[in-house]
Every structure is written in C-alpha cells, then in structure tokens.
TrEMBL record:
Gene3D superfamilies: P-loop containing nucleotide triphosphate hydrolases. GO terms for molecular function: ATP binding; ATP hydrolysis activity. Residues 5-230 form the ABC transporter domain. Keywords: ATP-binding, Nucleotide-binding, Transport. The keyword ATP-binding applies. This is ABC-2 type transport system ATP-binding protein. It comes from Actinoplanes octamycinicus. Belongs to the ABC transporter superfamily.
Length: 239
C-alpha cells in the first residue's frame, strides 16, 4: 500500500496573486517530507490542488498516478488535514467521523479506532464546535486516518497542540511514515521537521527553491532552520 505524490508544473492565479508558478515535486513513500516556505509561498494552494479543492490553471497533481477526483472513495487513498475548522459545530466529534466513514464505505468500528488513536475517546460525544484548536487538529488527523490511506497531506498539523500533543504528533507521523506511507507535512516549525522529516521541499513564489534530504541540508548549514533562512533570504512570500 504505497503511493507517490507527483506535482508537475502547477500554475494558479487568484486575481493579481500568482499563487503557483510552476510548482513541481515528488513525494516518495516511507518518509516524512516537509513542505516549507514563507507565508504566501503557495503551500496550502498546492495541497488544495492535490485534493481537487482548487483547479490549477496549468499542470497536474496525481497520487499513485491518478487524479484525486478519480477515486470513488478518496479517503482510502489520501488522508488530508487541511483545515481543522472544517466541521459542523453541532455535530459531535464521533458523528463527524461517522458521516465521513459512511461516505467511504468504512465500518463504524473504524471510527472508534481512530478516535482512540487521536486521544479523543473521552470527548467524542461532545459537539465539535466546542473543541479547542488542538482538539480540532486531533479530530482532523483522526479523519485523515479513517481510510487507512497510503498518502497523508497535513497542513500545519502542529498548530494549537500542547507540548504533549506535539510529542504525540511527532511520534505518530514518524510511525506512519515508517509503515511505508508518503507523509507530506507543511509547517513553519523547522526544529520539528528536522526531527521527523527525511526530505524537505522549500517553496517560494509558487515554485520549488530546493528539494533535498534533511541530513544533507543539516550537514551543509548545521540546522534545517539555518538552511531555510539562507535558502529563502530575499524570497519575499507575500505579494
Ligand atoms: N482563495 C484565494 N483567493 C485569493 N488569493 C488566494 C487564495 N488562496 C490563496 N491565495 C493567494 O495565493 C498565494 C499563496 O497562498 P497559500 O495560502 O497557498 O500560501 P502558503 O504558502 O500556504 O502560506 P502560509 O504559510 O501563510 O500558510 C497568496 O498570495 C495568497 O494570498
């Protein structure tokens, strides 16, 4: 159950903003790949294009050689945590997962498994609208894992987690990659990524500046943060 993400020549303009300008990279299975870059570099837009939430003006994005929209039960192929607030506030956390599971032909027992994995069993019957940001991130990760997908796309998954939650997320992402999944993590937390990522894609102005193994960057610049700051110096993100 492995799959590769291939992003090729994506271009996307929103009015005056050129969000993607030839974004091209490959995310391989079996490791965490960090996706970094200044605010406005095009990371979230890329993740939205991969999951069919946004249509590119040019270029392609595939998972295991297929477009996301071609999957009948996409959550079995790609798990995505893009917006932790994307939930109905009156639905309980468990019911949020339940309708997602039904839509993907997944058994109810899987809902309880991922609730437990996310540490939410105790609050699963409370309305998700009352969840804190950290709890919403956990619920979003539970949703991403529902279909046991070979590919995970996570946009800033550490945001809002408490210190124990950060350790939990770090260990889980390592474990998921160790199981052979392709795990793409967008984040501004260089120290976290240095710990868990094998590879990193540095984006700026809607395209890739550098894609390299973390060990190589740390060897050359002493830390991922130093590498990032050097590689993105002068690359203003916000235009
Ligand atoms: N729906 C939209 N409408 C208009 N402009 C948009 C939209 N989505 C993204 N943009 C613009 O596209 C550019 C890339 O934004 P994107 O959110 O992809 O960047 P990012 O790298 O994820 O940034 P951050 O690190 O701040 O999350 C920005 O200039 C942003 O303002």
């Amino acid at each position: 159950m492995t799959a590769t993400i291939e992003v090729n020549g994506l271009r996307k303009r929103y009015g005056a903003a050129l969000a993607l300008d030839g974004m091209t990279f490959v995310v391989r299975p079996g490791r965490v790949t960090g996706f970094v870059g200044p605010n406005g570099a095009g990371k979230s837009t890329t993740l939205r294009v991969i999951t069919g939430l946004d249509r590119p003006d040019a270029g392609t994005a595939t998972v295991g050689g297929r477009a996301y929209a071609s999957f009948a039960t996409p959550m079995r192929h790609v798990g995505a945590l893009l917006d932790p607030h994307a939930l109905h506030p009156l639905r309980t956390g468990r019911n949020h997962l339940m309708w997602l599971a039904r839509s993907q032909d997944l058994p109810a027992a899987r809902v309880d498994e991922v609730l437990d994995l996310a540490g939410l069993t105790g609050v699963g019957r409370r309305p998700a609208g009352g969840y804190s940001l950290g709890m919403r991130q956990r619920l979003g990760l539970a949703a991403a894992l529902l279909g046991d997908p070979p590919v995970l796309l996570l946009d800033e998954p550490f945001n809002g987690l408490d210190p124990a939650g950060i350790v939990w997320m770090r260990d889980l992402l390592r474990e998921l990659a160790g199981q052979g999944r392709a795990v793409l993590v967008s984040s501004h937390l260089m120290s976290e990524l240095q710990d868990i990522a094998g590879h990193v894609i540095v984006a700026g102005h809607g395209r890739v500046i550098v894609a390299a193994d973390v060990d190589d960057l740390v060897g050359e610049y002493t830390s991922l943060e130093a590498a990032y700051l050097s590689l993105t110096a002068g690359v203003g993100g916000i235009r």
